[in-house]
């Protein structure tokens, strides 16, 4: 099967990237060409970092000053470098939700640490401070890496309180939550700029932190750990290219309209299906991916939609602890079968519906008609 036929196969696609049109990007690319500066912290990356830091700072009430926003090649590399500079003990046990994208656990394992899987809250579907506190009573935890699941924001103040109370560092994977997730000066947070996320540029990641020294160390590691021409540590290459920053600058200019179009599609769903079958934050926030609670009929509804040419995704199932790469790792709070019970239950409930800015009202009506059948 060719790539094209895969794309043409669906009547309604689940996810379609919404990146700036080439014409919007061209003025920035021309600046890049005139400067002949294509990577290594060039003027477009510098301008993009300043603008996105101001944007995130403005939506983060706990920041009184503008945060540092450092670009990377992806959210995954941002998290890897963050964990490398975080002064954690060797082989640190880091608590993560069992329900997330594989990168959340992979960035821990690849930096020599050990992911430990926790269950999630049955209402918000994410690892909460209450779950982390219970995990502490269960065994050693050196850090926590909660996830803003499906792009819905998590409670940063509650995590800051957890950190202050326990002394355990917290890092947040908010990969799909740029525009929704406020940052907090006590808690470094990573965002993804991948094409499939609400703020897409192609490939890219951001680390947002109040800690300038931490930001500088991460940035240096992203460029071979060069310091005056020699490597002080073992670095890597995880920089964002100028061409991606050109997309980023064009995306900032249109992001409020991107969000408005996504909001319109969300409202079309909510008008037909009600709020009760969605994440509680759906009333106030437009998610990255839209999961519908089928109340135990996930497989049946998934098959019915797929049969009607409507593409669905069961984001992030099976859970990470069932992936071959992670299945030997510790899980805390398992049931008699060795499963994390809330995640196991959500597996039977959640289906990812088509959700992107190019859905018409008729598309949404068709999806809902099949759902309600
Ligand atoms: C998309 C995603 C990532 C990975 O982001 P990249 O920029 O593609 O590396 C990590 N964690 C979560 C929760 C994600 O949704």
Write the layout of secondary structure elements.
Blueprint lengths: L2 H6 L13 H14 L7 H16 L9 E5 L2 H11 L7 E5 L4 H9 L3 E5 L10 H10 L4 E2 L11 H11 L5 E2 L15 E4 L12 E5 L2 H10 L4 E2 L2 E2 L10 H32 L16 E4 L4 H10 L33 H7 L2 E4 L7 H12 L1
Parallel strand pairs: 2-3, 2-4, 5-6
Antiparallel strand pairs: 1-7, 6-7, 8-9, 10-11
Helix pairs in contact: 2-9, 3-9, 4-5, 4-8, 9-12
The structure holds pyridoxal-5'-phosphate.
Shape: globular
Query: Radius of gyration, Cα only, in angstroms?
Result: 21 Å
Mean pLDDT: 96
Percent of residues in β-strands:
5-15%
Unreliable residue runs: none
Count the E strands. Answer: 11
H and E order: HHHEHEHEHEHEEEHEEHEHHEH
Helix fraction, binned, reads 25-40%
Strand order of the largest sheet: 1-7-6-5
**How many helical stretches?**
12
Largest sheet: 4 strands, mixed
Structure explained in plain terms:
It contains twelve helices and eleven strands. By secondary structure, the protein is an alpha/beta fold. The strands form four sheets. The chain has a four-stranded mixed sheet with strand order 1-7-6-5. A three-stranded parallel sheet has the order 3-2-4. A two-stranded antiparallel sheet has the order 8-9. Strand 8 (226-227) and strand 9 (230-231) form a beta hairpin. Bound molecules: pyridoxal-5'-phosphate. Pyridoxal-5'-phosphate binds at residues 74-76, 100-101, 103-104, 147, 173, 175-176, 192, 194, 205.
Which properties best describe this structure?
373 residues; 4-stranded mixed beta sheet; binds pyridoxal-5'-phosphate
